[in-house]
Structures are given as C-alpha cells and as structure tokens.
Amino acid sequence: MLLESISWCPNLGVSQACKASADYEQLKEDDLYLDTASPPFQTYGEETRKSSSPNSQQNEVKSYAFPSASLEILRNNYTSKLGKVNGKRLHGLSSERAQHSPPLSTNDIIELAALNFIKSNANAIGELSALSHPYASAFLGEHVEDVQLLQDLLSCAEKVSNQQYVAAGRLLSLCHNPGFSKANVIKRLVYYFAEALRDKIARETGSFSAETMINRMNPIASASGLAAFHQKLPPNQVTQFAGIQELVDHVSSCKKVHIIDLEMRCGLQHVILMQALAARQESPLKSYKITAVVVSSSLMAEEAAGVRLRILAKSLNLSFSFNVIKLDDMMNLQKKRDCDEKIIVYASNALKFMIVNPNQLESLMGFIRNINPCVMLVCEPEGNVNSPVFVNRFVEALFYYGAYFDCVADCLKNAALDREFVEANLFSPSLRITVGAEGEERRSRIVGINVWRAFFAKFGMVEKELSSLALDHAKLSLKMFDCRDSCTLGLNGNSLIVQWKGTPICSLSAWRFHKIRV
After folding, report:
1. CA 453 to CA 24: how far, in whole Å?
2. What's the gap between Cα 284 and its chain centre?
3. What's the mean pLDDT in 229-248?
4. What is d(CA 300, CA 290) in angstroms, rounded to the nearest whole number?
5. Three-class HEC string of 53-114
6. pTM assigned to the model
7. 35-39, 233-237, 326-330: which has the highest mean pLDDT?
8. Helix (H, G, I), strand (E, B) or coil at 237
9. Using an 8 Å Cβ cutoff, are 294 and 263 in contact?
C-alpha cells in the first residue's frame, strides 16, 4: 500500500525508525534493486573536513535517508515528529513565532500532504493531523490548495497501484491540468508526476505509445537551458569543480594523461582540466588522451564535443588524442594501452544507466579493474529511487524530484524559459521512466552511495578521501551562488554529499583498487 511507503520524511528526523534492507558487506546480485538506508553524514564545516573522533561535536551529524517501512513506525512517532519543519517544531510554538518561520520548501509541503494523506486514509483517530494543528495555517499560508493537490496525487498513485484505473483517471483530471506546467513549483511538480502516472496507466492497459515520450526540443532553447542547468545550479557546479580538482591532484606531475570518460557529453570538465594542466610550469604535459565511452547518449554528441576539444588543444599547443567508442568496445582499449600513461576513469551520471543491465555493469567493472587506474571518480545522483515496488518508488521519487524542482525554481527564478526547458526536457523524461515504466524499460536508476560502496567492494575497490583542495573548491564554488544557504555539503564516509534544503541531490566519490601482492 502507498500508506506503508510514506513512512519517513527527510526533514522529520525519524532517522532511527527504519533499518537497511540490504547487507552492505555482502552485496548480492540484486542488491542494486533493494531499498537501502544510508547512515548519517558529517556536514563539511568551515574549519575542519573530518573529525578524528566519532564523538566530536565539530561536525553536525544529519540523517537523510528515505527508507520505506511500515505505517506503524510513523504512527509511533507521529505526535512528536509531525511538526518539525526546517528544524522548527509546530508543537509548543506560538502563532507569532510560526508566522516568522522560514518559508516552506517544496519538500516541507510534500511532507505535510503525505502526513495528512496517511491520517485521512489510516483512520488514525486521536492522532494529530498536519492541517488540523492550531498553527498549521501560519505555516501553510497560501499552500493549503497545494497540499490538497498533492493529496490527490498520492490518492491517484495508490489507485494506480491497486489497478483502479477508472478512479485514478478521475483524480488525474485534477492533477494533469495543462495550466499547472506554468504555475507555481508544487503545481508543476504535480503536473509532471501526473503525466508519469498517465504513462503508467497506459502501459498497464496496453494503450501506451513510445511516441508520447518524444520531446521536440528547440535547438536554441536547448543550448540555453542546458547551459543554465549546468552553470546555475549549485549541486552541478560543486561536484564538477571538486571533481576536476581531484583529477588535477592525481595527475599534477604526470606527462601522459589518459582519461576514460563514461558519458562525457559536452566535455566541459576537460576544457577546465586541459587548461589547468597546460598552464603548469614544472613537468610540462606531453600528451592528453580522452576515450569517450558512450553509455546512453549519442555518438554524434560526443564527437561534436571532441571537435571543440581538438580546437582548444591546438590553441594550447597540447598533444591531444580523442576517440569515441561504444561501451561494448571497451575491451579493445586494453590492447592499445600505453604503459607510460596515467589512466583515470571519470564517471559522471553514467552508472545509473547501467543498473538495468547488471551483466554489462559487472563487465565494465572487471575491465576497469584490469587496467587499474590511479583513481576512478564517480558522480551520481544520491537517492533511493530504485524500488521494484511501484508505490515505494513513487513516494521516493516525489521527494527526490521535489528537491530538484525546488532548486531549479530558486536558482532559475529570473530565467523562466530556461527553467521550463529543464523541467520539461531534462526532468520530465527521467521522471516518466522512473514512475511510469517497469523492468528493463526503466533505464535510469537512482541509488545511494552506500549501494555503490557495497557494489564496488565486490571488485576490490576502496573509497579514498577527497583531497582538501577538492573539498575547498566545493565550498568556494558554492559561495558563488545567491542561493548558497539552501545547499549543504556533507561527508558520508569519504564521499561528498550535496543536499538541497536537507534532501540529498548528488554525491562525489573517488575510488582505487587494492594493491595486488605478487
């Protein structure tokens, strides 16, 4: 039931209520499909990156997982945990203080809607309702309509899960209003989730057409929207600049550098990295080689990026080699390897496309182990949106995309066309596949760092600390944004976690292989 999946909200603090459903030390073949709970992370402070003592108070510890568990867990914590919004509790709060609290985030509103949905459906007599709290109106303000709309969306998802398609269709007519796509952030989120539910119903009733998934993008809008997405959203910039600095640290004195880049896309990271390496005075760089491995994007996009990088390399007087290959051709790289090269594997938002094909993913990892790079840098979405159970996945996706829609709304508030492009052409297709598709059709999967940590351990990979310079670059890049206070940097183990208003967005981690004793 959907009620059982709405068991813990990211900001409600019920961090000890649920246990992980997978053993991270003994990852099974299907563990990439399990719901898992992440342990707390350490907020990356201004003066220290990591405490040497587990009991140190220098770093704030937060829990951020959204595990799926029983409704009873929420009931037991309902009264004490319900009112926590942005670190403040509704209980014992005067109406005057409530009126001066920070504005509700998108996920705050989703939480209130989810809790009210649970109460109204679970017949929890005597328990506190989010909307019946005496000071709730001071927090909700103009959001009462949005909360009701989200409740309709949750009801619709539950009816879809119960195959009550006629009843679900009636609710969809309330949620899939074309006018919502240009309204406030909650209505836009509801609109795109309703679109995904419509796809789900069409698939299950045999009326789905893949043509409905095709978006006709305006080339001009595409260029502007993609640039805005990569340059104006703090999570993207933080992980990119921290990642580039981490790469520089590993090849700072190398004369031959070979980067195997999974899903390179536009190649902006190489522009910055090439300029940094070409500018060094000591131990000048002799050659810079890129092997762009296509996982889900098109060969054409990668080749176009290669043309631009060749022009840049010529202007820097840099010996440059660029090749584009398909994933299946990676094994041939072993035969062409230059022993003097320093090899790095860079995987940014690539592995999530391979979870659907475990054999392919394991083959890739076996190949990477054989070439034994000095480091493998991984940047992936940070979430738990991979449950095979539809209702669990729906709720987790609602919070994950809720945070991202909130981020885009704040950061692109003065660029409506770019925001519309990002939501309609970047978020919507991914969301529709995540919610509306099942099995192999669900090509993109989002799992957390603990799942990757367990998976990498199978291949003898160990997580290494990100350099202090890389973490400093993360902080410096965040300071460039007006909305920086909404973005939190933290450490889960040695991995950098980027949160938006308390919800994890993405992670950056560095890996190497155990040295093999001869």
Report:
1. 8
2. 37
3. 92
4. 16
5. CCCCCCCCEECCCCCCCCHHHHHHHHHHHCCCECCECCCCCCHHHHHCCCCCCHHHHHHHHH
6. 0.81
7. 233-237
8. helix
9. yes
- Residue 214's pLDDT band, with cuts at 50, 70 and 90, is low
Q: Which residue has the tokens 């698939």?
A: 203
The amino acid occupying position 497 is: I
Beta strand pairing call for 375-381 and 342-348: parallel
Nearest Cα residue to 392 out of 114, 6, 32, 18: 6
Q: Where are the domains of the chain?
A: 2-18+66-208+388-441, 243-384+445-513
- Closest by CA to 328, choosing from 376, 361, 304, is 361
Token pair for residue 323?
Answer: 């090749």
Of 116, 174, 213, 207, residue with least CA distance to 442: 213
Angle at 472 between CA 469 and CA 476, to 5 degrees: 135
Residue 488's beta-bridge partner residues?
499
CATH for the 243-384+445-513 domain, from 3.40.50.150, 2.30.110.10, 2.60.120.560, 3.40.50.300: 3.40.50.150
What tens digit of pLDDT does each residue of 175-206 get? 988 888 888 999 999 999 999 999 999 999 98
Place of tokens 């993609």: 226
Q: What angle do CA 198, 202, 206 make, to 5 degrees?
A: 175
List C-alpha distances in Å: 386 to 390, 391, 462, 481.
9, 11, 24, 31
Distance CA 31, CA 27 (A): 6
- Tell me how far CA of residue 421 lies from CA of 84, 216, 220, 506, in angstroms: 34, 11, 11, 21
The first and second tokens of residue 297, run together, are 């994007």
| Overall residue count recorded for the chain in this entry | 518
CA–CA separation, 136 and 89 (whole Å): 11
| Nearest-10 Cα torsion for 163, 68, 146, 197 | -30
pLDDT tens-place string over residues 260-272: 999 887 888 899 8
